[in-house]
Amino acid sequence: MASPGSGFWSFGSEDGSGDPENPGTARAWCQVAQKFTGGIGNKLCALLYGDAEKPAESGGSEPPRATSRKAACACNQKPCSCPKTDVNYAFLHATDLLPACDGERPTLAFLQDVMDILLQYVVKSFDRSTKVIDFHYPNELLQEYNWELADQPQNLEEILMHCQTTLKYAIKTGHPRYFNQLSTGLDMVGLAADWLTSTANTNMFTYEIAPVFVLLEYVTLKKMREIIGWPGGSGDGIFSPGGAISNMYAMLIARFKMFPEVKEKGMAAVPRLIAFTSEHSHFSLKKGAAALGIGTDSVILIKCDERGKMIPSDLERRILEAKQKGFVPFLVSATAGTTVYGAFDPLIAVADICKKYKIWMHVDAAWGGGLLMSRKHKWKLSGVERANSVTWNPHKMMGVPLQCSALLVREEGLMQSCNQMHASYLFQQDKHYDLSYDTGDKALQCGRHVDVFKLWLMWRAKGTTGFEAHIDKCLELAEYLYNIIKNREGYEMVFDGKPQHTNVCFWYVPPSLRVLEDNEERMSRLSKVAPVIKARMMEYGTTMVSYQPLGDKVNFFRMVISNPAATHQDIDFLIEEIERLGQDL
Amino acid sequence: MASPGSGFWSFGSEDGSGDPENPGTARAWCQVAQKFTGGIGNKLCALLYGDAEKPAESGGSEPPRATSRKAACACNQKPCSCPKTDVNYAFLHATDLLPACDGERPTLAFLQDVMDILLQYVVKSFDRSTKVIDFHYPNELLQEYNWELADQPQNLEEILMHCQTTLKYAIKTGHPRYFNQLSTGLDMVGLAADWLTSTANTNMFTYEIAPVFVLLEYVTLKKMREIIGWPGGSGDGIFSPGGAISNMYAMLIARFKMFPEVKEKGMAAVPRLIAFTSEHSHFSLKKGAAALGIGTDSVILIKCDERGKMIPSDLERRILEAKQKGFVPFLVSATAGTTVYGAFDPLIAVADICKKYKIWMHVDAAWGGGLLMSRKHKWKLSGVERANSVTWNPHKMMGVPLQCSALLVREEGLMQSCNQMHASYLFQQDKHYDLSYDTGDKALQCGRHVDVFKLWLMWRAKGTTGFEAHIDKCLELAEYLYNIIKNREGYEMVFDGKPQHTNVCFWYVPPSLRVLEDNEERMSRLSKVAPVIKARMMEYGTTMVSYQPLGDKVNFFRMVISNPAATHQDIDFLIEEIERLGQDL
């Protein structure tokens, strides 16, 4: 096996990112630690060195005992590989940890050491002088380390090394210059909550085994429905494993509402159903239709205007067309915040059409839902309160750790009727508590991960106003980027006008292309620019931003900002970096 | 707001469980801490008190500096509410944490304090003198604490308190006497891995943003396919959010294999499809059929023998019946380890029938798959290598934290063809690395949680032989239970013979019922016994085990053992506890 961790915790050129703001070597963990003195240290020492045996004295202030202390290693690599005084992981295995007899001590030491590794990673994640990614091609990465699984156990020293190595090659998704996905950033309270969720290690199907989490799901979904604008927050909902599944739920429930017999009889028993969504909508609508036996051909893509918004007149035309063919329109999925342009479909106009033709209105606000938290921006979702169902992913614009996606439904009880199978081994009818809290049978899943706690705890920590501030700041940053590049030499905007969401779509045109006429050759060359710049970004590890073609538009950058760590300087850096990496193309 | 945490970290009667092995008050955190001295303490102190600023000296052993230390509180409650010297969370908010300027110090302190809370919970979880659950009825729990979400932020002191309160009311799923679900126990390496996964906070859709995790998924799924017995571990697969979704995938892929046109045209384009599974199979087969537009009426339930195994002759009869009606049998889902009885369907006979009639053979080994790791028990799944797809949940019998469910498919590429939608914003075709590692488009989900790392790290830590030892031990414990109660007064077995899995199904018959004739009144009274004992178990918080009716059998206990902490003494305790709580009924 290769020596994997080498260099990871050391300082030096690997971390040099070319960042003009943070020149030279990295500020690393130990430098942070130097600044770090105080209560927690005392507390830990007291805990670790036996002060806890003293009787409680409120406000007591005796120093921790020194007698039992042993020499610490003094190297500046944490965790270091120096011989440890008392815990030698090379002689410890998983079988020495709890629930082993006398497993507490090694368990606490091991978990604390894992935590050290994680804390170092967290601190590094926010350090602009570190790389966003230490990129290796798949074959390199497969060869660089032995990832294979074997018959025999490894010792805990090796396990700690695997943790380091895994993080060495991971993307720092909390890094201030990571803009690659709609989900970026690393929230500290959300992270703490996710650690707690892992520690509680339970399932959402019944109140019996997840009492608090079931109640928190109830409280949180209700709050989200209130914010959508449904009276008294009434309705239903669930946290599902991602926006695609939330959208699939909406399609499933809409179909059931119109044709409940489909549950028993299948699609053979119902006429041909048609769903409508915009040509800029998320691919999950088609994926869902394929899975649900509706078929992708029955998903009609409605034209968008130049800003990526669904054109209501085209929607109505296609609905009438479908009806004339004897098909049954059953779902319109409007998008609030499209994936690429960040466009908001005109929800009021869509709602009017849905009402007129009695069609289930779904709003895919996976990306745009967060704007409902902002008094300044929520008007972009006006009409969402008329939807029958809404997908809203707090793991995107609200910065909740992955995954946290909600499907909200206006009509209560429908999800339950649609999905319940009454498994008697889980949902016993003769339990001693109120069975309405056994919510598992409304899910497609049986076991369901606890996704609510991180959102709930972040909400308590930030308040609605904290989410609002985050969202307003991200939109302001997007506007800042737009204002810089809209008239800057070498940039062309993909669509005109100020972005409605944080999506800023643009081409960077290298000097050699600026002189070319607007013809096919130029388009062909332009289409190769973004992939090359992106590849270089990853190889240097300085930043990450996404690109794609769309319709007849060749590869362009889609900048999105949901990362709470990003600042104006990071936007400036992005522009400079694109130019640095692309000027020779 | 009520004062929530009070009493949680204190010792006393709340923890008295009536456990004869651990009488009296709890061993609690601080007593653990008293035993705890050594390298980690030194290391933390060095880290926290500035030794790190010294130049690295390999093997250096200077003691940590004492100069900058401040007084620690000396109370024995951890975390305590005594005034802290340096970090006063009452004046700190989420906005003071990273990425805030100078956020490192409060962030490290906060995360470390969260970790303290979690470590205390972990230690308590394994302590038999603590309750499995501090049960409160839903309305009580809603009133006992303010769970509501508000506009304004709360300070970090309150956030830490919420963490404590949440854990106070949580089920200790790692507790040695928690037997309620197929997923029990809390593995320390798995937990560490899940914390790391949360910290990495990424998504599985592309290699670009999850390089290591994508490779580990590749390595791990291949290993699982090797163990199933597919030559060279070839084939395909995915980690999905739970066994129900894995089973739904199997159904989806089987349908696509036979009628690929269903993806575009929907179920209207194909004949009526019929799936077959046993009457003891998991409800997710019907749930999947309802969702996929196949309909629950098209899921034929095959009869089981008295041990809960599918009867092959009935399967063949029903296949022929369906064909005579002009329907198309497309899937047989055999179960390896049924939910209630733990029965293994005769896979070889089922495989013969599937081959004869050219039907996709799926094996739902969500619960039984773990036995493939045991040389002693894997014969129970003989024939699984002939399946076209297999569901296998390492989060059940292998003790991996929730969730970790794999769907393995023998034919490579089929999942991709079935589910791909070619979203150009994610799966750009002009990336600079090998695109075969962008595996996201074979999923139904778009974003997908990283579920592989905890399994991979546990596998490295335990080796295949470690999983084998765990599984052999759990099956031995089940046999121990069976041997005790099969002839014990007051017990009746639900089915005869030694259990094949760890499921032991039995009635406890209280003395007052033992004298009654075997008639309807007795059945009616017997049906009320298990729910009452279960309710009392939860109210006392001493243990948890599941019960249910099945077919014409009234409520019986289903004991299952997947908890690595359980011992023979815990089985003895369970029996005594059932008798203690049920003797008056």
From TrEMBL, chains A, B:
Positions of modified residues (N6-(pyridoxal phosphate)lysine): 396
BP term (GO), one: gamma-aminobutyric acid biosynthetic process
Primary localisation category: cytoplasm
Record InterPro entries: PyrdxlP-dep_de-COase, PyrdxlP-dep_Trfase, PyrdxlP-dep_Trfase_major, Pyridoxal-P_BS
Annotated PROSITE patterns: DDC_GAD_HDC_YDC
The protein's enzyme class: lyase
Pfam family membership, one: Pyridoxal_deC
GO molecular function: glutamate decarboxylase activity; pyridoxal phosphate binding
Coiled coil: none
Domain of life: Eukaryota
EC number: 4.1.1.15
Function: Catalyzes the production of GABA.
Assembly information from the UniProt record: Homodimer.
Identification of the protein by name: Glutamate decarboxylase 2
Originating species: Rhinolophus ferrumequinum (Greater horseshoe bat)
